[in-house]
């Protein structure tokens, strides 16, 4: 059933990896940069090299199916360090109309010549195959389908692809499970699996416990396996925090009670993580490295976005104030955190309970950095920035809405954690400044119309000593 091609070019079947990928290369070069989850926007894709290719269904019937891990090469980066992407490629003679949005293209030459290839996650049958492989704990080539033996996976759950824009791809199975397929992958322990597993062992109900997951072992790479996908219970009828906040804003409703509840949920997750995984103390040396990183990101951001230049000195002062406290002997406790917390990473169930999801961290940052212990203030700053984004999305913007939500969120956090994040204003300002600088660069590159949102925060943070 399976054919595996490793990065060395060896294969257990008859289709050489170079021939297969060469036939797809021109189509993927055109298709991949258009995907929301492609990280290398703005630079052309010059080609691909295989990391692993697994044939899940031979392309000699009505449907063929390949699982690909490929490196996309873009100038000026060295070809050996291109980003690795996970693709599920379907092969048909022709696409039915219902699969038109999934089209990648028509293959002109090579082993798939004359066939049509497409993103197979749009197709129920390939999605069924993934769930069945997880249910039976299959091993197909280098792919390892693993699951929690204490959780049942029923057969015949109807799949549907979630089409909302996101940095990965998700398939919902019968309102029972959701499979998150990571698109840009790296070898090693992925926090999107590691942290929910740790929280499940701790008995934390605020994060859905992983039911199953997919890993890939690549024979010729001296690395840990790649984590490719995570299956978790689907929170039926849930609304994400961003959507809920915008809905309440549109109705002119107060969001303070929800913000307070969300603060409590965040503190519960932080408390559980501090018990489940090691914590460290950050002294002057560690804080110096943290501040250096923030300062370097600011310097790069100013070069990339000239609008930041008038604020550079004021923004830098936020980091310098933190370094000064460390020099005076102040220390902080660091632990594993969410790493990219905002309203869109939170789900409110119909019963009113909040859950936190997507513990991958900021995908653009190295995996080792995403797994480093951080002060909880990093997550808190991310949520405070998210309230600001929501307020500016209203038409017209609601001037005091974000401030009310920020205060309620911090108060809710304090009810569980026993300490209010606002009692450490220098640390919170530094993290919020770092986040706002990141947002400026992101918006300038991807959504220029949104640039005024983080720039308004930059103005506030650059001219304030404590907030």
Describe this structure in words.
This protein has helices spanning 17-31, 124-135, 191-202, 241-251, 256-276, 284-304, 312-327, 367-370, 377-393, 401-417, 425-446, 452-462, and strands at residues 4-6, 47-57, 64-73, 83-92, 103-106, 116-119, 139-140, 143-147, 159-161, 169-173, 177-181, 184-185, 212-216, 226-233, 239-240, 280-282, 332-334, 346-348, 354-356. The protein is of the alpha+beta class and 467 residues long. It has 2 domains: 4-233, no CATH class; 239-462, Aminoglycoside 3'-phosphotransferase, Chain: A, domain 2 (Alpha-Beta Complex). The strands form 4 sheets. Strands 1, 2, 3, 4, 5, 6 and 12 form a 7-stranded antiparallel sheet that branches. Strands 7-8-13-14-11-10-9 form a 7-stranded antiparallel sheet, with helices on one face. Strands 15-18-19 form a 3-stranded antiparallel sheet. The longest helix is centred in the last third of the chain and has 22 residues, at 425-446. It is globular, with a radius of gyration of 23 Å.
Spell out the key features of this protein.
alpha+beta, seven-stranded antiparallel β-sheet, 2 domains, 467 residues, 38% helix, Aminoglycoside 3'-phosphotransferase, Chain: A, domain 2
- Hey, roughly how much beta strand do the residues contain? 15-25%
Tell how many strands the DSSP assignment holds: 19
Radius of gyration: 23 Å
Number of domains: 2
Number of helices: 12
Distance between the termini: 60 Å
* Averaged pLDDT: 91
